[in-house]
Amino acid sequence: MRSTLKEQNLPEMKIEANHFDFNLWFLKDVYNEESLTKLGLNERQIKAVMYVKEKGKITNKEYQEINNVKKRQASIELADLLNKQIFERIGKTGKGTFYNL
């Protein structure tokens, strides 16, 4: 079940168990426009999150292309997404580095 949720870019389920029974919760998708706006994301950042939900990852170059911004602006906004713990960076710097949820 967990792998299917991950493949579909859906939130993980929460499981609690004791000696007698267990509870299974399917968590709400927190990556929607309303909740992202409340977190202080701008339109470009929200667009990037939606892109990652669909494609699975985003690079700095893709961020630049979908938002029509320069590399410096893309780096600043991606760093903000990292600081807000919305994105996770895979790789250090340069080619091969990408971001996912």
Structure overview:
Helix 4 (60-67) crosses helix 5. The strands form two sheets. The protein has a two-stranded antiparallel sheet with strand order 1-2. It has a two-stranded antiparallel ribbon with strand order 3-4. It has five helices and four strands; from the N terminus they run H-E-E-H-H-H-H-E-E. A hairpin with a 7-residue loop joins strand 3 and strand 4. The longest helix has 13 residues, at 43-55. The protein is elongated and about 55 Å long. With 101 residues, it is α+β, with helices and mostly antiparallel strands. The protein has helices spanning 2-7, 33-38, 43-55, 60-67, 71-83; strands at residues 13-17, 22-26, 88-90, 98-100. The mean pLDDT is 86.
Give a brief outline of the structure:
This protein has helices at 2-7, 33-38, 43-55, 60-67, 71-83, and strands at residues 13-17, 22-26, 88-90, 98-100. It starts with a helix and ends with a strand.
Decide which structural class fits the backbone.
Answer: alpha+beta
Major sheet attributes: 2 strands, antiparallel
Taking all Cα atoms into account, the compactness measure Rg is 16 Å
- Helices and strands, in N-to-C order? HEEHHHHEE
Q: Walk across the major sheet and give the strand order.
A: 1-2
Beta content: 15-25%
Outline the low-pLDDT stretches: none
Number of strands: 4
The total count of helices amounts to 5
In whole angstroms, the N-to-C terminal distance is 19 Å
Q: What form results from the Cα inertia axes?
A: elongated
User: Overall pLDDT, averaged?
Assistant: 86
Q: Percentage of helical residues?
A: 40-55%
